[in-house]
Amino acid sequence: MPVTLVDALLPALEDGAAVAGRHPGRDAEALAALVRAVGFAMQPRILPGLRAETERYLALHQDADTLRYFKRRRLTSLGLPGGLPARLAFVPRNATVRRAARRAWDIRRSRRGTS
């Protein structure tokens, strides 16, 4: 959680002007919503009351800035926006699909090695 807060509040170090000047970061309300959503994603059993709020937050903030705090796999396993669509949710747990993906990956790696 501390890394999420620092990342959300401080400017990118590559942005010299923002680092030298004052950076407003996120407003307090937006930051609190982000922290609650990340908290739910990290501890859904401890914070089940935050599920609806997290779903709303993720539905409204589907951009690279926000989604970098959430792994797609985690969102999928929790059935949250930003994960795989419900009709494709079986894919990560399907043994046949995983085997086929591993074979494709092995073939791809072996072809790279022979080039």
Architecture overview:
By secondary structure, the chain is mainly alpha-helical. The protein has 2 domains: 82 residues, no CATH class; 29 residues. Helices cover 60% and strands 0% of the residues. It is built from 7 helices and no strands. It is flat and about 50 Å long.
Structure summary:
The chain is mainly alpha-helical and 115 residues long. It has 7 helices and no strands.
Topology of this protein?
Blueprint lengths: L1 H8 L6 H5 L7 H15 L8 H10 L3 H4 L4 H7 L16 H20 L1
Helix pairs in contact: 3-4
Ranges with pLDDT <50 over ≥5 residues? none
Helix-strand makeup class: mainly alpha
Which oligomeric form is depicted? single chain
- Rg, please? 19 Å
Shape field? flat
- Please count the helical segments: 7
Largest sheet: none
Order of H and E elements:
HHHHHHH
Number of domains: 2
Q: What's the number of extended β-strand segments?
A: 0
* Helical coverage, percent range: 55-70%
Task: Provide tags for this entry.
7 helices; flat; 2 domains; 115 residues; mainly alpha
